[in-house]
Amino acid sequence: MNHSDSGNDFVQREDKSVYETTEPVLYAVADGIATVTMNRPSFNNAQNSQMTYALDAAFKQAVDDDAVKVIVLRGAGKHFSAGHDIGTPGRDINKPFERQSLWWDHTNKPGAEQLFVREQEVYLGMCRRWHDIPKPTIAMVQGACVAGGLMLAWVCDLIIASDDAFFQDPVVRMGIPGVEYFAHAHELNPRIAKEFLFLGDRMKADRAYMMGMVNRVVPLDELQAQTYDIAARIAKQPRLGLSLTKTVINRAEELQGLRATMDVAFGYHHFSHAHSQILGAGTLGGHDAKSMVQANKKDNSA
Which terminus in the chain has less CB density within 10 A, N or C? Predict the structure, then answer.
């Protein structure tokens, strides 16, 4: 049977990324606590694939180390994370990496397949992998936790936030129904989740605490001390007991629909990317990093 299968066509995309660091993630262990630090402070810890794979390697190192009982995820500099890298010189969307799932390389795939495959790996797939780390994880959040930053905080078991922290998912502005690890309706009451997404406004740490999304809100100058005090207390508990407890609660979340919600949202997310491309607005609804920052400043200036 002869037919033309455009799905077998491959394309060439030039990788123009230039990294500002060879260490996008720092790793250290002390007193049974592994510290995983996002280390792109000059770009507010925007997550490129270089950082994502480095995070995965750091988490694996922590899991493999029997001396580690608890993992703390933090961001260097003023902000936890400004989200996915959509505009720095280190944006490496066209660079191939050694993948951690069984999806194929995205870099030479045509049309909407490129982003669909890439984001299965580095966004949804990685976050699900990290959510199931068998050791307790704590996100230590200061400053901005925006879009892709939410995904990193949400995969952690606890979130300790400073009083200057804020949480935001403004990507509806791009025509996209929220970030790929779509936990909004599980982290927040559905009506609050709609407000969070419809408006794209910043949610301050105190309101996030009231919503149950954050465990503690502490003064910025006490954030590190209080986070590591909690980590040290958890580290005194038996390793297997912690792992089993985490597993039970994670499975309960899935029974409540967390995984199914993400699967549905991921499909719509990539429909929106494809729709935007068809309309000639690129994959981000005509936005880039600069326009998103400007819009965020305008919307949150009141």
Answer: N
pLDDT in tens, 189-222: 999 999 999 999 999 999 999 999 999 999 999 9
Look at the pTM and tell me if it is higher than 0.85. Answer: yes
Reduced to 3 states (helix: H, G, I; strand: E, B; else coil), residue 98 is coil
Provide the β-strand partners of residue 73.
36, 139
What is the C-alpha to C-alpha distance for residues 45 and 144, in angstroms, rounded to an integer? 10
Contact 144, 167 (CB under 8 A): no
- Give pLDDT tens digits for 11-54: 999 999 999 999 999 999 999 999 999 999 999 999 999 999 99
Render the burial of 40-54: b for 16+ CB within 10 Å, e for the rest: beebbbbbbbbbbbb
How many angstroms separate the Cα of 212 from the Cα of each of 75, 127, 225, 246, 270? Answer: 22, 20, 22, 17, 29
Query: For residue 253, which of 177, 183, 194 has the smallest C-alpha distance?
Result: 183
